[in-house]
Amino acid sequence: MDPADATGDPAAGDTAGDPTGSPAGSEGRSVGRDPLLFLQALQTLWSTREPRQLREEAWRGFAALDDPLTALLDMLESSRGWRRKGPSLEAWVTCELQRWLQARPLPGPAQCSSRLKQLQARAVRVLAESPPSLVEPLVSIFQMQDADRSPLLTHIHRLYQEGKFKEAAMLGLKLRLQPELSVEKMSTPLLLQDKVTLVERYVAGFPDLQRRLLALLDSWCQPGFDIRAVARQHPQVTCLRLERLSPRVLSRQALSLVERQGLDPALCPNAVTQQRLAALRYLYCKRFVERSMSQENWTDHVQGLVGQDEWLREELLRLLASSDNEAMAARCALDLSLPEERLPAAVAAELRQLKLQERTPEMPFEDRRVDYYQLPIAREDIHFLASWEDLARHEEELLRPGQVVGVDLEWRPSFGTGGRPQASIMQVAVEGRVFLLDVPVLSRPAGGQVSQAFSRMVSQLLSDPSITKLGYGMAGDLRSLGASCPELAHVEKQLRGSLDLLQVHRQMRAVDKPALGRGEARGLRGLSLLVQQVLGKPLDKSQQLSNWDRRPLSEGQLVYAAADAYCLLGVYQALCREPASFSLPEDLARSLRPGCSERSGAQELPGLQEASALAWQVPVAENEDAAPEVPARAFRVVCDNMLQGLARSLRCVGADVLVLGAGEDHRRAAECCATTTTAVRGCRRCRPCPGPWRSGLCPHRGSVLDGWPRALGACFPGSSSSWCVRASLPLVSQ
Q1: Which of 313, 432, 434, 600 could potentially form a cystine with 562 if both were Cys, beta carbons 3.0 to 4.6 Å apart?
Q2: What per-residue confidence (pLDDT) applies to 653?
Q3: Could you tell me if 646 and 680 are in contact, meaning their C-beta atoms sit under 8 angstroms apart?
């Protein structure tokens, strides 16, 4: 072990720390009066690497010295080993003397005495040659922060001229000399070397210096600025990292400084503009390349980003001119009122044609709903809660013990233009319903009746270990919720009984299976990829980047928000049913408990089969005769588009399923029924079951788990047509 790593206070021993308590102490006193003999005595122990004995001997020697401060300077001035990089006995003795003085403060020279000034003058000369590790001990031992500033500033300037920019900044930082040094001069070489963390430490605690640093970074973000011109002015700077000084990176650093230090973003207009440009390019990619964003959402965000900024408007025109889709570019130019004369000829011609038409054609991707996961509940089962009365009406259903719920949050994207995102919508999905909570309305004013009721309900939901909470990246969602509602600032620590499907997804992806990699090859990621891998179709993310602060929310936003939370229940159901199919252990919940729940001491979640039965299984009536089991392959099923989830589940077990399109009449199912075995129609609203039904689940949605063919054969014929408003067709016709 290196003596520098030794810990413990030898003075805490019985006699080891007392210079007069033992013969060893007497020996230390006899040689301690001469600093060079004291150093020579320690050299033997230093070479044997006996840390505890070395420290005990050093502390006895410090106590025996008549003037430890003068003795230290004598030792450092008479030796050159500490000037080199790496461990040395002299450097170790300096650090130990600092610890010894902190443990046993002794009366030293007065701060304004001539003797202290003489020691400080000698210490400055030592500092001029010392490595960075000795700066802090020497500053502390000789009270350098109170010394005469002139020689210290001279030494810092000398280090700077020698190209030791880091050492100069560190010394100025330790001596608190930043206000007397040019922050632009000290920071520029460090920024060129990508030492941003050191620069931020250098200006910490000095608001004026922080604003000046921000102004420097912002000046480098000006359009057309060439950072290489700055590098040429500092030829002594080595290890340049100019690739880390692009306008985009610099603007991100500037806005990060604004957020951490609580500065006004108006101090860095160029940085804000660069971040807006990066966001504009990102939106262009989402709309014109990926085509995963609706025209309405794209226009809304671009208008907010560009505003009246002429430079950003020019950049937008360049982006539109680079597109090979003239029709789409013309549509965007029309929605944004861009001048026709600034557009390419082909785009301008399309724009004139659009102006003559009464309506604009729909974009192709908006008609691809059948390619995506469809919400398996009716639109009437999506509830938007924005008042105290709404919370009170649905509180019992939201907080029902023993249920499984999906939790998600949505917020307006900031595209890196500064500020922590504020949650706009909190989605809570339960069996058959989704509740969308209007966070800005329910959390304000802080301390009000509505805010208290909202915070109490959310805290109770998240802290109840009997309610299984499903999420995907729950930690980030809860931090956003805490930032939006101060009363929920520590809600992450209250979380009990949760399962983050992000951790499950990572375990699935860790297994190299071609079947799980197909979605990634198509560009899917995150929750959409998980839904595609488990349920067969990805999520439609076209509303993900929409303006979630807008009220009222559009119909597309409401359905998207509900699907984002409800799909968690479907994924959990599928994983509970067949964990081995996805290379997961049999007890998923117990083996993949989320990190946040572990930290907070969460109780164990129910096992897969137990949770599956509690949350999903529909009991068969006790008095009904069980129908003979039918192989899954024998079923041929017709589903309307409200039962997309059921159709996917039936296909997974081998049934032949036909799904009606979104525009097809429901009577089409009756026509198909003449040639198929089973026809299933969705209900407008699930109601409590009469008779032996106790779970309150819609039969044709609740019996797709364990032994579903037997459940279909036994339960469906016995259910009345009034139980399910639209269940009027024969369900099993074998």
Answers
A1: 434
A2: 73
A3: yes
Contact 190, 198 (CB under 8 A): yes
Degrees, nearest 5: CA angle 362-366-367 = 95
**b vs e for 678-687, b when ≥16 Cβ sit within 10 Å of the residue's Cβ?**
bbbbbbeebe
Give residue 232's identity as a one-letter amino acid code: R
| Residue type, position 482, single letter | G
d(CA 431, CA 18): 74
- Token pair, residue 63, equals 């106590």
* DSSP H/E element including 228: helix 227-232
Q: What percent of the chain has pLDDT over 70?
A: 73
d(CA 119, CA 287): 69
> How confident is residue 416, by pLDDT bands cut at 50, 70 and 90?
low
Q: 227-240, pLDDT tens digit by residue?
A: 888 988 888 887 77
CA gap 727, 697 in Å, rounded: 14
Which residues are registered as beta bridge partners of 678? 637
CB 455 within 8 A of CB 488: yes
Q: Across the strands, what pairs with 407? A: 428
Q: Are strands 468-471 and 433-438 parallel, antiparallel or unpaired?
A: unpaired
Nearest to 282 by CA among 45, 10, 614, 545: 545
Which of 119-133, 648-662, 684-698 has the lowest average pLDDT?
A: 684-698
Can you give the three-state secondary structure of 639-684, one letter per residue? ECHHHHHHHHHHHHCCCEEEECCCCCCCHHHHHHHCCCCEEECCCC
Question: Residue 730: its pLDDT value, please?
Answer: 32
Question: What do you get for the CA distance between the two ends of the chain, in Å?
Answer: 81
Overall pTM surpassing 0.70 (yes/no) = no
Name all contacts of 9-13 with Cβ < 8 Å and 24+ positions apart: 9/103, 10/52, 10/55, 10/56, 10/59, 11/59, 11/103, 11/104, 13/56
One-letter identity of residue 435: F
Between β-strands 636-639 and 498-500, what pairing exists: parallel, antiparallel or unpaired?
Answer: unpaired
Residue 471, pLDDT > 60, answer yes
Do residues 211 and 164 lie in contact, with contact meaning Cβ atoms separated by under 8 Å? no
Beta bridge partners, 385, equal: 437
Q: Which two tokens stand for residue 392?
A: 């009170």
Mean confidence (pLDDT) of the chain? 75
Of 228-237, 578-587, 607-616, which range is least confident?
607-616
pLDDT mean over 663-675:
65
Element (H, E) at 405: strand 404-411
Assigned token pair, 635: 């079923």
What phi and psi, each to the nearest 5 degrees, are found at residue 168?
-65, -45
With a cut of 60, say whether residue 602 has pLDDT above it. Answer: no
Whether 446 shows a pLDDT value over 50: the answer reads: yes
Is the pLDDT confidence value at 368 over 80? no
Task: Identify whether the C-beta of residue 365 lies closer than 8 Å to the C-beta of residue 292.
Answer: yes
- The secondary structure of 135-161, three-state, reads HHHHHHHCCHHHCCHHHHHHHHHHHHH
For residue 715, what pLDDT band results from cuts at 50, 70 and 90? Answer: very low
- Both structure tokens of 377: 């509940």
Residue 95: strand, helix, or coil = helix
Burial of 650 per CB tally in 10 Å (0-12, 13-18, 19+): buried
Could you tell me where the beta strands, DSSP code E, fall in 418-561?
A: 423-430, 433-438, 468-471, 498-500
Q: Which of the two residues, 381 and 589, has the higher pLDDT score?
A: 381
